[in-house]
TrEMBL record:
GO BP terms in the entry: dolichol-linked oligosaccharide biosynthetic process; GPI anchor biosynthetic process; protein O-linked glycosylation via mannose
Pathway annotation: Protein modification; protein glycosylation
Organism listed in the record: Parnassius apollo
Protein name, per record: Dolichol-phosphate mannosyltransferase subunit 1
Subcellular location(s) per record: Endoplasmic reticulum
Record's keyword annotation contains Transferase: yes
GO annotation, cellular component aspect: endoplasmic reticulum membrane
Subunit structure: Component of the dolichol-phosphate mannose (DPM) synthase complex.
InterPro entries: DPM1-like, Glyco_trans_2-like
CDD domains with a match to the protein in the record: DPM1_like
Keyword terms: Endoplasmic reticulum, Glycosyltransferase, Magnesium, Manganese, Metal-binding, Transferase
Reactions it catalyzes: a di-trans,poly-cis-dolichyl phosphate + GDP-alpha-D-mannose = a di-trans,poly-cis-dolichyl beta-D-mannosyl phosphate + GDP
Length: 249
């Protein structure tokens, strides 16, 4: 496909704001930041990393301040909050300070490898997708570090969701995505869910609003340091949200 002068100018002006909500990630944060720098600097894309720490008691914010001194305030932007206020509000808080026209959301616990970010960007540019999502369930994707029970729960939940909601995407609960900034703002405004199921509703609302969705196969790696934040309450939230979305979409 030929690239016009206008397309080239738009590409040059693109900037990617990477939102990293954190809570008790002091061990993981230096590693994920180093990996982001490695892959984004090599690719030559203009970017910034916005760290939204929700009052971590383990000193995550102090580590973030050290990283900002190391890499510079133009690349590492700190926007902490006093306490945990939810994932959706963390994104809104980060977007308010984002200078990019694209937003990348990912986990800070090393479950999402930054090596996939250039692939997200390339796919979005090729097809002008409104959002690009990492998927564990397409060919080339997968999960590392989960036991059989957790894999079974994840697969089962995804199958039921696909059956009931027909979302037009293979992985609804993943939280590794690239959005056009205006699209993300619109989706957040439409969503009512909180916590674990917030990502699922984002995809459903994207389908409702006829936004285009691209997918990149990824390998999800269970966290190396710290404890998983997924528990029984999140599973109950998932079931309630699934019924709500089935009834309202």
């Amino acid at each position: 496909m030929a690239v016009t002068a206008l397309d080239s100018e738009i590409t040059k002006s693109d900037k990617y704001s990477i939102l990293l909500p954190t809570y008790n990630e002091r061990e993981n944060l230096p590693i994920i930041i180093w990996l982001i720098m490695k892959y984004l600097d090599f690719s030559g894309y203009d970017y910034e990393v916005i760290i939204i720490d929700d009052g971590s008691p383990d000193g995550t914010l102090e580590v973030a301040k050290q990283l900002q001194k190391l890499y510079g305030s133009s690349k590492i932007v700190l926007r902490p909050r006093e306490k945990k206020l939810g994932l959706g509000t963390a994104y809104i808080h980060g977007i308010r300070h984002a200078t990019g026209n694209f937003i990348i959301i990912m986990d800070a616990d090393l479950s999402h490898h930054p090596k996939y970010i250039p692939k997200f960007i390339e796919l979005q540019r090729q097809h002008d997708f409104d959002l690009v999502s990492g998927t564990r369930y397409e060919h080339g994707g997968g999960v590392h570090g989960w036991d059989f029970k957790r894999k079974l729960i994840s697969r089962g939940a995804n199958f039921i969701t696909q059956l009931l909601l027909r979302p037009g995407a293979s992985d609804l609960t993943g939280s590794f995505r690239l959005y056009k900034k205006d699209v993300l703002l619109k989706l957040i405004d439409c969503c009512v869910s909180k916590g674990y199921v917030f990502q699922m509703e984002m995809i459903i609302r994207a389908r409702q609003l006829e936004y285009t969705i691209g997918e990149v196969p990824i390998t999800f790696v269970d966290r190396v340091y710290g404890e998983s934040k997924l528990g029984g309450s999140e599973i109950i939230q998932f079931a309630k949200a699934l019924l709500y979305l089935f009834a309202t979409t």
